[in-house]
Design a protein that fits this description.
alpha/beta; Rossmann fold; 2 domains; 5-stranded parallel β-sheet; about 10% strand; DUF218
């Protein structure tokens, strides 16, 4: 989305199978972007059987290895979708007595192709509408992004599924509206017809 990156109250990393996102979030902390680093995520469809622990626990371990102090890491290990990332973490911060301190502004860290849907979900579902959000991800092009854990076919199917969610989820109250250019939507339909339909809602 190319949103400006500025100092914030906390870095909020939405976990997944891509551990490069954990490293990116940890580096943002080490660069002084925010004083706290939040990891949210249980085992999902793509990580069940891949990780022995919830995604948030795996990501937090990577951050510790990179030098992030343990007392600056917050782990929410139950969320199984983006809406739960929002709700469960908001509730956890309130229980920890950190909500008022950390809700002022958040840097949301996600995979590059999920920036827009993450932003749209938080803008809709985060309970405090005064919170300022920006989104960050590793600067990888579509050609650079696929690797052994994230093969091109899988990534393409997930991207198509996210495009459909961006279109359909506002009507269900899950996200704010986002404009989808006609040519992008038509390209998505062609990809579905070509078999990239494994991660549709």
């Amino acid at each position: 989305m190319n949103l400006p990156l500025r100092p914030a109250s906390a870095i909020f990393c939405l976990c997944s199978l891509d551990t490069r996102i954990a490293a990116h979030a940890a580096q943002l902390y080490l660069d002084g972007i925010a004083p706290y680093l939040i990891f949210s995520g249980d085992s999902g469809v793509l990580t069940k059987g891949l990780f022995a622990e919830p995604e948030a626990v795996v990501f937090a371990a990577i951050a510790r290895e990179m030098g992030v102090p343990d007392d600056r890491i917050i782990v929410e290990p139950r969320a199984r979708n983006t809406g739960e990332n929002v709700r469960f973490t908001y509730d956890l911060l309130r229980e920890m007595g950190l909500l008022e301190e950390l809700k002022q502004s958040l840097v949301l860290v996600q995979k590059p192709y999920m920036e827009r849907r993450t932003y749209a979900t938080f803008r809709k579902q985060w309970p405090d509408q005064r919170t300022l959000f920006t989104v960050s991800s590793p600067e990888l092009s579509f050609d650079e992004y696929p690797d052994a854990s994230n093969p091109r076919e899988l990534v393409t199917s997930i991207m198509v599924g996210d495009l459909v969610r961006i279109k359909e989820y506002p009507a269900r109250g899950f996200q704010i509206e986002q404009e989808i250019p006609d040519e992008v939507w038509e390209a998505g339909k062609r990809l579905v017809e070509a078999g990239f339909d494994k991660h549709l809602p």
